[in-house]
Input
Amino acid sequence: MVYTSRATGEPRAGCSKRPAFSPAQPRRAETRLFPNKAAASEEARRTLRYVEPLSDARTPLADFFSILLALCALLLVLGAGSGETFADEPAPLVKVLVAYHSLSGNTERMAEAVVDGVKSVSGTEALLKRVGKVTADDLFSADAVVVGSPVYWSNMSGEVKTFFDNWQFKFGVFPEFKMKNKIGAAFATGGQVSSGKEVTMLTILAAMLGNQMIVVSGGGAFGASATTEGDSPGIDNKELADAKELGRRVAEVAVMMKRGSSH
Output
């Protein structure tokens, strides 16, 4: 094809024979590139012979990403599986130690009612022991400790005071404060209405606070108490209900503390 001059219509000298493409000549351009369908097909086959092997080839970078994706999928599966396992595992029991001193049996009855209150809360277990029988393992493995004492001269009994002294002399709670953040509570029994039951409970709570325990009340302002002489001999049902309420409150708070600290 020869280019002509727009002015004269004569052929230009030295012009290339390459066709000039325009929107009005799409099929002429296609014909120049591939004169017939057979040539187009042959050209496509030659192109594919070089392209197909490249598409099948795997580079080190592609291998790396494939391995990375596989590892991510494996971690997701393992993570989901372990989460289900943890969810199915039962929560550890909350242990409550109820320690007491009793000669007449009145404080012992209150202690038994406290244990009943603890057991009313699911996920808990109670250990009932006289103060002289408590071991270091009983004390340190407990999540909560409830101590009960009769009133002797407007204060805790000597046996209960010795029990607290032994926390250091026999069990060695200091200087690590091994009872720190455990739940503590108190109950008391006394012969008269104003015989010193509140003072007794407060001195028990003071010993616990000195060990950096968290003290709670229940069944009364400072804990559960019972009047055992005069117009109310022994332990009545109302006083037993107060002791049970104290045990339930201690167990509930201990459960909240233990479950909260495990997350």
